[in-house]
Amino acid sequence: MSRGATSTIRRPSNSPWNGVNCHPSLPQKCRLTKSRIKTLLISFSDRNSLINHEFVPVGTTVNAESYEGVLKWLLQRIMVRPHLFKGGQWKLLHNNAHPHTAICMRHFLATSKVTVLEHPPYSPYLAPADFFLFPRLKGVLKGLLFSDIAQFQQRMTTVLRAIPKEAFAGSFQQLYNRC
Q1: Which of 33, 85, 94 is nearest to 62 (CA)?
Q2: How many helices (H) and strands (E) does the chain have?
Q3: Each residue's pLDDT tens digit, 106-117
Q4: Domain total for the chain?
Q5: Residue ranges making up the domain that contains 163
């Protein structure tokens, strides 16, 4: 074959691979339809409970500036609960997404005296949301239909608040075992 040339394999016209004369009794693969409702959740928890969660407004992109606003709100919530912020023992674990690693975000966290645990790159198995929170939420919400985003967010909030303390403690133990 010469450089730049392509070869074509021709199939017989009655081949089942070209969609013609497919066996009608074989089950058809169902196709999933994309959801009209999409929302982004930002959540923070400790080993006892969900500390804060909020839904990103539709059409908003999470960048360093918006994430800093979320963290300011989180720090206010933590300062109000002294048992969460015991003399700088509180630590933040977030993944390596661009808003989390931006220079302005690192500066904000340093000036706020927040210790950040380094998250290894390309390690989603170390993110508690991936192995604990998302599977739990998917299991509860699977098959439910929602008419609008507000209804979905309300149901999601109910599910998040219903997660028992032991489950959060278990997720931190899983994280420890994965490291």
Answers
A1: 94
A2: 7, 4
A3: 999 889 888 887
A4: 1
A5: 40-177
